[in-house]
Amino acid sequence: MKKILCYLLISINLMMSCSSQNTSTSDTFKNFTKEFFMNQNVYRALKKYARNNTIQIIDPDHNIINEFTTFNNNNLNININIEKQDDYDFYVKKAIINKHLAFVVLWYKDSTTALCFYPIKSEYTPNKWIVEEITTKSIK
Questions:
Q1: Alpha-carbon distance 81 to 90, whole Å?
Q2: For residue 53, what pLDDT band results from cuts at 50, 70 and 90?
Q3: What is the H or E stretch that residue 12 is in?
Q4: Exposed / middle / buried, residue 77 (Cβ in 10 Å: 0-12, 13-18, 19+)
Q5: Considering only CA atoms, which of 79, 55, 83 is closest in space to residue 69?
């Protein structure tokens, strides 16, 4: 009986810690996405590809978002959709988001160009993401 009670308490403790961890991870994920797309360096990189001051990004694999999201940065509307569609500007190919470092790759619709972003958590402004470097790569 004591073993069963002990296992039950351990299981409850693990479930509670995992659920609180998921919430904080989800919040961190949302904060990262907002700070990333509101960053002025990201704005300048995406602005070059804008049509009518709008960028359409698709993220069907849920790499950076879980629902349709819109950001407005200096009159540039950035729409991120989770559903595949024919009319888009960028596809979120890869996103790795850790506690202090991230890597985001957006493939342009021509399938020959990729924008690679390297955001980091600044040591001078804690809890704020800055984009350290942006590179443009040829995919072919």
A1: 10
A2: very high
A3: helix 2-37
A4: middle
A5: 79
